[in-house]
């Protein structure tokens, strides 16, 4: 009987893990708050970036305000490869990153170890 | 709480458990045994392990799993099982949970420290900047902060001071140590009209200079910007690694569950040992060594090359530099100095130069500059002249020291004759594609001067070194075939493509690419398309901005030996990346079956504590191996200067 329970639980867990991590889950896109000559968006850093995809308008100076809540050393750095940005995010503090919005496109960013990913869409 | 404090805390709290583990065989027990263990482990779990669990949970909500997930699940399993075991009076494993946390934090503390030392190159570069400058304002010298210096300011630099920004000397002269920017260890002498680089060290004299570039435009600021971009970039090989890392953690969790299932249900081992196997799998598999294998090597490699005056723009260039089969050089300004120089003087050198310089002093011919420069460097004072006159299409003549003197090309030979020996020398020099001028004094020819855009001193050695590496060398030039062949023979280049129109350079590079990846070395505006087309574009730092922008590698020193060094450093760095990845992969792929108990029959297995220690060691070894790049010997490196 014990063995049966273990078997069922084990396979159940495997199925759940496969679905949770490998399955397709919709990613929410969030647009930046627009002002006349400035746009900004807040991104919370906790086990990833939320929202992980932000949309910026082309040609308007933009800032992404990161706020790291997570103690993981993985997430303490944010790297925008395309812009040459490699910033340290102080814990529980707002840290702004200025994004060059002159060219439209999709720009990926990641944590220092490239384990967590986010995306900036300029259009 | 910082990683270090978390480590210290868990180390102190784990110590009593460690002592008990060693002294247990001798009958020693902690007072209150299981309950004490429970309290100590709980403290570790809350204080040191808490952030791992928080981070794992936050990642889980994002459908992500990372190394914190593995640590959290591994330790939590051991801890909660032990509580259950304690209540049902079975063997407990509180120490396992505590030790794993301690070891992993130990690894992170070291990793943190080493990562910072790897990324220190950029900060060290920025520290080179002067803090303030002595500027001429309203006729008085005032000291102002660096940020207030504007283009056009006249700045005074005293011996031992740092030069604040880029500019041109307006007054005075000095020797300047530019090693921090160019990597060149010999100080250079500079006088009025020479360019100085911000952040370099003035050594002997006092001089004034006019600021031409400030703030983000200075060479140093641009170097810093480039190095930063290179260090945050990823080599293409990293993308494969990322894909693997993304599915790695969930896959490990599945393997751990399967391990437990196989041992418990199929083999029928005890619940305790089945669980220990599963926990070991989770702990050993932390893929952080994999994650840092590429970035740390890239950081150290690009940082070191920047110190040598070689700026590698990104990881892609670095990876491409490894596959290069052919190196194509632009001629003018790349292999050669880019301006005509006196290469040979036939006859009494001092006398010939003295007369020639006197005659050319009033001439504006480009060849005249070459002769005057030579007179200046060999410290020959030109004679005084009168009755200066140009002979159309032939040369110039004047009265020097009371005698008629002339300088000109071989068309003058209708008026004067050369000896047979001089005639032979002249023809020989002309065959080397040199321009020969004849110098006459008091009615007879006293010597010949040969002028050529000569190869840089380092070119022949660099090309020989590339050929030793098995690379094919090609020279592309717009010059005619005779000049091109002469230069090619002097430096020992394999193939020459002459008479190339400026717009066709890129097409020639493309054609050469058919036989393998090509590196192109150039400096001019017309080289920009070829620099972009080539698999690796190497721009001379003295070149035009557009060439520097198009190149993937920039050589600050304009020395062709740096082409060799750049390729060699790229190779070493890339080799190190592959080496790191190999070990990180091997570690995980071999570690998992061992931890899962596959080799249990051979008495080979891992306890969760050992797995935690191994996992810390693997990250450390990867970072240490990257840092070793700083010590890798370069065959082409100059004598190392501290």
- Profile the largest sheet of chain B: 7 strands, mixed
Q: Beta fraction of the residues of chain B?
A: 15-25%
CATH topological fold name of chain A: Immunoglobulin-like
What is the CA–CA distance across the termini of chain A? 59 Å
Number of strands of chain B: 22
Q: Can you tell me the CATH architecture of the domain at 310-337 and 456-556 in chain B?
A: 3-Layer(aba) Sandwich
- The helix-and-strand class of chain A reads alpha/beta
Return the string of H and E elements of chain A: HEEEEEEEEEEE
CATH superfamily of chain A: Cupredoxins -  blue copper proteins
Tell me the name of the CATH class of chain A. Answer: Mainly Beta
Biggest chain-to-chain interface with counts: A-B, 37 and 49 residues
Q: What percentage of amino acids of chain A are in beta strands?
A: 35-45%
CATH arch. level architecture of chain A:
Sandwich
- Radius of gyration of chain A, rounded? 18 Å
Name the average pLDDT of chain A.
Answer: 82
Number of helices of chain B: 22
User: Which of globular, elongated, flat, extended, rod-shaped describes the shape of chain A?
Assistant: elongated
What is the subunit arrangement here?
heterodimer
- Strand order within the widest beta sheet of chain A: 1-5-11-10-7-8
How many discrete domains of chain A? 1
**Structural class determined from secondary elements of chain B:** alpha+beta
């Amino acid at each position: 009987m014990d063995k049966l329970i273990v078997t069922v639980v084990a396979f159940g867990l495997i199925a759940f893990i496969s679905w949770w991590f490998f399955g397709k889950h919709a990613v929410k896109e969030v647009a930046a708050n627009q002002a006349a000559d400035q746009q900004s968006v807040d991104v919370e850093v906790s086990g990833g970036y939320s929202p992980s995809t932000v949309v910026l308008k082309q040609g308007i100076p933009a800032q992404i305000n990161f706020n790291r809540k997570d103690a993981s050393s993985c997430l303490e750095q944010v790297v925008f490869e395309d812009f040459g940005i490699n910033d340290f995010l102080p814990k529980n503090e707002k840290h702004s990153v200025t994004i060059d919005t002159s060219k439209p496109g999709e720009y990926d960013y990641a944590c220092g170890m490239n384990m967590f990913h986010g995306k900036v869409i300029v259009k | 709480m910082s990683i270090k404090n978390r480590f210290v805390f868990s180390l102190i709290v784990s110590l009593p458990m460690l002592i008990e583990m060693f002294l247990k065989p001798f009958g020693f027990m902690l007072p209150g045994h299981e309950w004490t263990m429970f309290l100590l482990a709980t403290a570790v779990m809350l204080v040191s392990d808490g952030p791992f669990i928080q981070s794992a949970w936050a990642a889980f909500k994002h459908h992500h799993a990372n190394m914190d997930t593995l640590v959290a699940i591994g330790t939590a399993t051991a801890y909660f099982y032990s509580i259950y075991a304690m209540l049902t009076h079975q063997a407990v494993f509180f120490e396992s949970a505590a030790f794993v946390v301690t070891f992993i934090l130990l690894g992170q503390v070291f990793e943190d420290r080493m990562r910072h030392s790897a990324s220190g190159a950029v900060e060290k570069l920025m520290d080179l900047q002067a803090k303030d400058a002595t500027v001429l304002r309203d006729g008085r010298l005032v000291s102002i902060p660096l940020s207030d210096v504007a283009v056009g300011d006249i700045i005074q630099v005293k011996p031992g001071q740092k030069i604040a920004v880029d500019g041109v000397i307006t007054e005075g002269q000095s020797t300047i140590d530019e090693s921090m920017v160019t990597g060149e260890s010999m100080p250079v002498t500079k006088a009025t009209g020479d360019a100085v680089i911000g952040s370099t060290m003035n050594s002997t004299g006092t001089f004034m200079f006019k600021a031409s570039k400030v703030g983000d435009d200075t060479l140093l600021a641009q170097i810093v910007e480039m190095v930063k971009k290179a260090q945050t970039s990823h080599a293409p090989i990293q993308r494969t690694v990322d894909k693997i890392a993304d599915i790695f953690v969930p896959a490990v969790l599945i393997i751990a569950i399967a391990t437990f299932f196989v041992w418990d249900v199929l083999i029928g081992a005890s619940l305790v040992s089945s669980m220990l196997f599963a926990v070991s799998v989770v702990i050993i598999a932390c893929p952080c060594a994999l994650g840092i294998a590429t970035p740390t090597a890239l950081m150290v490699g690009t940082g070191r090359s920047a110190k040598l005056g070689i700026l590698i723009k990104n990881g892609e260039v670095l990876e491409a530099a490894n596959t290069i089969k052919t190196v194509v050089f632009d001629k003018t300004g790349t292999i050669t100095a880019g301006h005509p120089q006196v290469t040979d003087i036939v006859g009494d050198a001092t006398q010939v130069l003295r007369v020639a310089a006197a005659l050319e002093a009033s001439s504006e011919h480009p060849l005249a500059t070459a002769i005057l420069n030579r007179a200046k460097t060999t410290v020959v004072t030109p004679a005084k002249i009168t009755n200066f006159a140009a002979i159309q299409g032939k040369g110039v003549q004047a009265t020097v020291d009371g005698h008629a003197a002339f300088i000109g090309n071989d068309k003058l030979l209708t008026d004067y004759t050369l000896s047979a020996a001089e005639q032979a020398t002249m023809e020989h020099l002309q065959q080397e594609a040199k321009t020969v001028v004849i110098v006459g004094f008091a009615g007879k020819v006293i010597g010949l001067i040969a002028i050529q855009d000569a190869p840089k001193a380092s070119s022949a050695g660099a090309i020989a070194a590339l050929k030793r590496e098995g690379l094919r060398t090609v020279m592309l030039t717009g010059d005619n075939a005779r000049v091109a062949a002469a230069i090619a023979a002097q430096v020992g280049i394999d193939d020459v493509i002459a008479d190339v129109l400026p717009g066709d350079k890129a097409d020639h590079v493309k054609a050469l690419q058919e036989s393998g990846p090509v590196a192109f070395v150039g400096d001019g505006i017309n080289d920009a398309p070829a620099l972009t087309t080539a698999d690796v574009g190497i721009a001379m730092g003295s070149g035009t901005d557009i060439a520097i922008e198009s190149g993937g590698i920039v050589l600050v020193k304009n020395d062709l030996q740096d082409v060799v060094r750049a390729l060699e450093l790229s190779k070493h760095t890339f080799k190190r990346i592959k080496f790191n990845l190999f070990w990180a992969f091997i570690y995980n792929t071999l570690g998992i079956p061992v931890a899962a108990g596959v080799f249990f029959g051979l008495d080979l297995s891992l306890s969760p504590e050992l797995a935690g220690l191994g996992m810390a060691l693997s990250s450390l070894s990867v970072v240490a191996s990257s840092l070793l790049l700083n010590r890798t010997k370069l065959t082409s490196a100059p004598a190392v200067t501290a």
